[in-house]
From TrEMBL:
Gene3D superfamilies: C2 domain (2.60.40.150). GO terms for cellular component: axon; lysosomal membrane; peroxisomal membrane; phagocytic vesicle membrane; presynaptic membrane; synaptic vesicle membrane. Keywords: Calcium, Calmodulin-binding, Cell membrane, Cell projection, Cytoplasmic vesicle, Exocytosis, Lipoprotein, Lysosome, Membrane, Metal-binding, Palmitate, Peroxisome, Phosphoprotein, Repeat, Synapse, Transmembrane, Transmembrane helix. Homodimer. Can also form heterodimers with SYT6, SYT9 and SYT10. Interacts with calmodulin (CALM1, CALM2 or CALM3). Interacts with CD63; required for localization to lysosomes. Interacts with APP. The chain crosses the membrane at residues 20-41. The keyword Phosphoprotein applies. This is Synaptotagmin-7. It comes from Phasianus colchicus. The lineage of its organism: Eukaryota, Metazoa, Chordata, Craniata, Vertebrata. Residues 52-61 have a biased composition (Polar residues). InterPro entries: C2_dom (IPR000008), C2_domain_sf (IPR035892), C2A_Synaptotagmin-7 (IPR037732), C2B_Synaptotagmin-7 (IPR037741), Synaptotagmin (IPR001565). It is a single-pass membrane protein.
């Protein structure tokens, strides 16, 4: 059968028209799908970015709070945040672990921060006028008078918070008891080995003293650190006039120890500088000069020189000494000595400086000493801290010589 092409085209769409319509329909569908995917992605990415900003950028974030309240000092001396930070991803943790660091600078910074934080010579040890106020501890004792037996009773009970006088960071304290002005007759407690809070509980009797004479005396207690091989080091003293005490019954006192009257002030001062070089593992000690040294010779002068000991823990490692300055109480030395000290040993290191009087015919006399470390007295600790805080710089300071 024959069909007219014009009639057929008028009744149904041609093949080309159908093909174009199909292509347009498919294109529109793909466009709609792609737009939906893009909007979904934008919403997801925007939400994640917003969450990241809320976690990191806000001042009240949980990251800031956890750093504030969970810091502690472990053995290494660094401040470490031990609490997990909310919102921190695994990728953040791995990046932090692989961050390159210098092992030498790490060790120096660790020890520096530890010594600066743990050393006892902080600003709290200074008075309002900026002067150093050394804590020498305190002592508890009792005193009373027996009228029937004409006997004064003194009981030495205990002491607390005594300063360390030995290289091991402790002391061997004992107490001398006087009734001033009599200095010839004294009584002593036992020595308490390696103890900064000793308990004695010892009773001493001064018999045959009429009450009229007792009230004219001053009870004087001197706490000393026992030393087997050299002179005992005075720690502190307490004096109490007995006419100000009710002796009819035993009275108990807590008294702060004060510097001994024959102590550092009359022995003179020494100016020295310290220079710490962490990369070379060394400390340079420069003995500069001294002033107002105590006269040790009959002629009213001295022949001073200075010994410098490097101590590690309680062991002597190395000794250096200056030349002798003849007949001089204000000598100028200007001599430098270098000591090799590994950084990890700084905390256990002490530099002992002793000013001596040279004597040709007898034993040399000790004029005074200085102990430099992170656990010495306030003045010494300040010098040590300044040295650590200012590496490769010579830090100078005057020090009072101590017995």
């Amino acid at each position: 059968m024959y069909l007219d092409p014009e009639a057929a085209s008028a009744g149904a769409p041609s093949r080309d028209v159908v093909l174009v319509s199909a292509i347009i329909t498919v294109s529109l569908s793909v466009t709609i799908i792609l737009c939906g995917i893009c909007q979904w992605c934008q919403r997801r990415l925007g939400k994640r970015y917003k969450t990241s900003l809320e976690t990191v950028g806000t001042p009240d974030s949980s990251r800031g709070r956890s750093e504030k309240k969970t810091i502690k000092l472990p053995a290494g001396g660094k401040a470490v945040n031990t609490a997990p930070v909310p919102g921190q991803t695994q990728q953040d943790e791995s990046d932090r672990k692989t961050e390159p660091r210098s092992s030498v600078s790490d060790l120096v910074n660790s020890l520096t921060s530890e010594m600066l934080m743990l050393s006892p010579g902080s600003e709290d040890d200074e008075g309002h006028d900026g002067s150093n106020r050394e804590n020498l501890g305190r002592i508890q004792f009792s005193v009373g008078y027996n009228f029937q037996e004409s006997t004064l009773t003194v009981k030495i009970m205990k002491a607390q918070e005594l300063p360390a006088k030995d290289f091991s960071g402790t002391s061997d304290p004992f107490v001398k008891i006087y009734l001033l002005p009599d200095k010839k007759h004294k009584l002593e407690t036992k020595v308490k080995r390696k103890n900064l809070n000793p308990h004695w509980n010892e009773t001493f009797l001064f018999e045959g003293f009429p009450y009229e004479k007792v009230v004219q005396r001053v009870l004087y207690l001197q706490v000393l650190d026992y030393d087997r091989f050299s002179r005992n080091d005075p720690i502190g003293e307490v004096s109490i006039p007995l006419n100000k005490v009710d002796l009819t019954q035993m009275q108990t006192f807590w008294k702060d120890l004060k510097p001994c009257s024959d102590g550092s002030g009359s022995r003179g001062e020494l100016l020295l500088s310290l220079c710490y070089n962490p990369s070379a593992n060394s400390i340079v000690v420069n003995i500069i000069k001294a002033r107002n040294l105590k006269a040790m010779d009959i002629g009213g002068t001295s022949d001073p020189y200075v010994k410098v000991w490097l101590m590690y823990k309680d062991k002597r490692v190395e000794k250096k000494k200056t030349v002798v300055m003849k007949r001089c109480l204000n000598p100028v030395f200007n001599e430098s000595f270098s000591f090799d000290i590994p950084t990890e040993r700084l905390r256990e290191t002490t530099i002992v400086i002793t000013v001596m009087d040279k004597d040709r015919l007898s034993r040399n006399d000790v004029i005074g000493k200085i102990y430099l470390s992170w656990k010495s007295g306030p003045g010494e600790v300040k010098h040590w801290k300044d040295m650590i805080a200012r590496p490769r710089q010579a830090v100078a300071q005057w020090h009072q010589l101590k017995a």
